[in-house]
Amino acid sequence: YSMLLSLIFLIVLVAAVVGFVFRHEIKTNFESNLNLALRDYNVTADRHSEAVDTIQRTLHCCGVQNYSDWEKTEYFTQRGIPLSCCKSQDDCSEEDLKDLSKAKLKVFVDGCFFLVTSTMESKMGVVAGISFGIACFQLIGIILACCLSQYITNNQYEMV
């Protein structure tokens, strides 16, 4: 049991170190994937488009760096900026969303990449604290399992 807990502890420790060391590559990868999701954004309900809409609605952002990123997409030429970028769903018309100068007043102008990464970084303290707490319980479990094993091998328990 202590070997199993030790193995899990080491896997979590390695994952934490790798995540910390490669955090910049993770950001770069997220940015490129967000750009791809914008490029491939369409009206059909695929999971990438739904994810983009959810991020934009939840974080009140639009595009990767800013709302003008949508201008480079095929979706923009057909329908304009998506409704998920609108500050108010009632106030956005399709004509406004096709014109960037009008859309600037009606959509969120901040990009999602900065907001997502800053939200993740602000929550890292909570994640690190919870991970540290779990690691402490694992270490206590490893120590207690080793102590129990030692007591059993020393015949401290009466055989039944």
TrEMBL record:
Residues 1-19 form the signal peptide. Gene3D superfamilies: Tetraspanin. It is found in: Membrane. It is a multi-pass membrane protein. Its main location: membrane. The chain crosses the membrane at residues 126-152. The keyword Zinc does not apply. Coiled coil: none annotated. GO terms for cellular component: plasma membrane. Keywords: Glycoprotein, Membrane, Signal, Transmembrane, Transmembrane helix. May be involved in cell proliferation and cell motility. This is Tetraspanin-7. It comes from Bucorvus abyssinicus.
